[in-house]
Amino acid sequence: MGDNFEFLCRLAKSQGTKVILFLDGDKRKLIEQQKVAAEHPDVKIIFLPDREEFEQLLPTEVYFRAVAEATQQPDATVAIEAWKRWVNEDPRHEKKSFSKQVWSWLEESIDTLQASKPAVMRRAVELAKPEEIRADPLRQLLKAISDDLAGTSF
Length: 154
Hints:
Helix content is 57%, strand content 5%.
C-alpha cells in the first residue's frame, strides 16, 4: 500500500530482496517524479498499458458483481448501468481512472459505504474464471521474475 515507490524500493532492497514494480498505467508520472529509475536502476518497472488499472484486468461485469456483493446491491447489471449514467452526467467523471470513477460513484451513491477497494478486488478475483482474466500483463511480470531468477544461484 502507498505510492512512495522510491522509499518502498529502498525498504525492500534493505531486506536483501530483488524488486520488481508492477504498477497501474497511471503511475508513470509518479515514478518519473520520484526518479525511481535513476535511484534504482536495478529495479524492473512494469506498467499496465496506457492508464489501465489492475481492476481492468477483469471484465467490468465481474468487478461489478464484487461491488454489488460488497455494497449489498441485488444486481451487478443495475449497478453497472447506474455507474455508467453517473460517468456520463459530468465530463469530469470520464477523466478519472476506472477505479476512481467506481469509488467516487459509490461514495456519492451510498450513505454509509462499508466496502473497501482491496476487499472488492480480492472478491472480484475470486469470482473471475481464469480465462476471463487478461493474462498478458501477468505474463510480463512472470517473465521478469523468471529472468531475475535465471541470474540467481541457489
